[in-house]
Amino acid sequence: MFSSIIGKMRVPSKGALTLSCAMMVILACALPVSAFAQSLRVAAAADLQQALPDLVQAFRTTHPNARIDVVYGSSGNFVAQIESGAPFDIFFSADMRYPENLFTKGLTTSKPRRYALGKLVLWVGKTAHKNFDVDVRREGLTLLNSPHLRRLAIANPAHAPYGERAKEALQASKLWNTVEKRLVLAENVAQAAQFAQTLNVDAAIISLSLALSPAMQNAGSYALIDAKLHKPLEQCAVVLKRSVHLALADEFLQYICSPEGASILARYGFSQ
Q1: What percent of the chain has pLDDT over 90?
Q2: Does residue 187 belong to any structural domain of this protein?
């Protein structure tokens, strides 16, 4: 029975198979690149937690099939992970030094590109306000001389650029020795902001981008720290050579550095 069925089946000729395969290749090539879903894995400085989701959403209006997964943390820790083989496509740092280090070691496709200039603020919670009459914007860092501000959070200067700049500003203001024993070191600047928002500390030195979030504005107020008191927070990014989607990674970075990207970053306190 099976032999009779097989005997009635028409086996495609070699020429027909070749033509069929050729047509499939032509159809595949005719499809736009966007028809194939691609994903990027992004390592981003913690101060971008508010701004980057908007940037990703805007980018996906022209790249609807692009999936962009973002992990936030401290720039120094990301460098260690990348050097150990972490599968990131792009690295957005809060300063220039860390991506330059990766470029020097031959792990990036090009030199770092600056996408923004970060700003540092002193944030003081409303609970601390109740303990003494204070105008945070007017007094600024001099408030740290007050005994009412018992605990101050900053990102760890050892591996977080915002923590490093906070330390520089405190040293330049002759306040480091005053506050050193009151410091609470956070893993990154976003965690320092979280400590402040949840009232685990009275004040924090954080990024302007995080201080502008609705939650932080409802919980306290801030004062900009004079940029002359610390090295610039030149925030730079690189595409990593191990990326399997180099073209898409380049397009995303170019978008972040474009005028449209800059306008979105400006809404969160970044300048160019």
Answers
A1: 78
A2: yes
| Integer Cα distance of 257 and 272 in angstroms | 9
Q: How confident is the model at residue 132 (pLDDT cuts 50, 70, 90)?
A: low
- CA separation for the pair 240, 247 (Å, rounded): 11
Query: In terms of residue numbers, what domain contains 57?
Result: 36-117+232-266
Tokens linked to 8: 């009635």
Query: Alpha-carbon distance 97 to 204, whole Å?
Result: 24
Residue with tokens 């330059």: 100
The structure tokens listed for 249 are 């990674």
- Beta strands 152-155 and 183-186 are parallel
The answer on 224 and 123 residing in a single domain is yes
CATH code, domain with 54: 3.40.190.10
The rounded distance, in Å, linking the Cα atoms of 218 and 204 is 15
Number of H helices, E strands in the chain: 14, 10
Q: Which residues contact 243 (CB under 8 A, 6 or more apart)?
A: 40, 88, 89, 90, 109, 249
**Looking at the DSSP assignment, which residues form a beta bridge with residue 41?**
69
Mind listing the pLDDT tens digit for each residue in 64-119? 999 999 999 999 999 999 999 999 999 999 999 999 999 999 999 999 999 999 99
Residue 22, pLDDT score: 45
pLDDT of residue 27 exceeding 50: no
**Phi, psi at residue 247, to the nearest 5°?**
-65, -45
pTM: 0.85
Q: State the residue for tokens 């923004």.
A: 116
Does residue 181 belong to any structural domain of this protein? Answer: yes
- The CA-CA-CA angle for residues 115, 117, 119, to 5°, reads 145
